Amino acid sequence: GNINFVRILFDDFVHGAKVTLTSNLNDGFGIDDVTVARVAPVPLPGAGLLLMGGLAGFGVFRRRRAAV
């Protein structure tokens, strides 16, 4: 027989899910590696903060130069 792999991925919080496996043949079903976990938020890297600070500095410099 054929071997089929299925991956189900939810992008947002899910209250419940139902999966039904059916077959007309005498094939068996197996479920493996089920993971339910919260994903940690990704922190803003230090380079991003430096970039924002540099852009803010350019904005202040431009304002001072335009006022003169």
Short description:
This protein is an all-alpha fold and 68 residues long.
Query: How much of the sequence is in beta strands?
Result: under 5%
Alpha-carbon distance between the two ends: 80 Å
Mean residue pLDDT: 79
Number of helices: 1
User: H/E element string?
Assistant: H
Oligomer: single chain
Give the beta-strand count: 0
Poorly predicted spans: none
Main sheet attributes: strand count, strand direction, barrel closure: none
Characterize the overall form.
rod-shaped
Q: Percentage of helical residues?
A: 25-40%
Q: What is the C-alpha radius of gyration, as a whole number of Å?
A: 26 Å
Given helix and strand content, the structural type is mainly alpha
Would you kindly provide a written description of the structure presented here, covering whatever features stand out?
By secondary structure, the protein is mainly α. It has one helix and no strands. It has one helix spanning 46-67. The longest helix is centred in the C-terminal third of the chain and has 22 residues, at 46-67. It is rod-shaped, with a radius of gyration of 26 Å.
Feature tags:
68 residues; mainly alpha; 1 helix
Write the layout of secondary structure elements.
Layout: H1 46-67
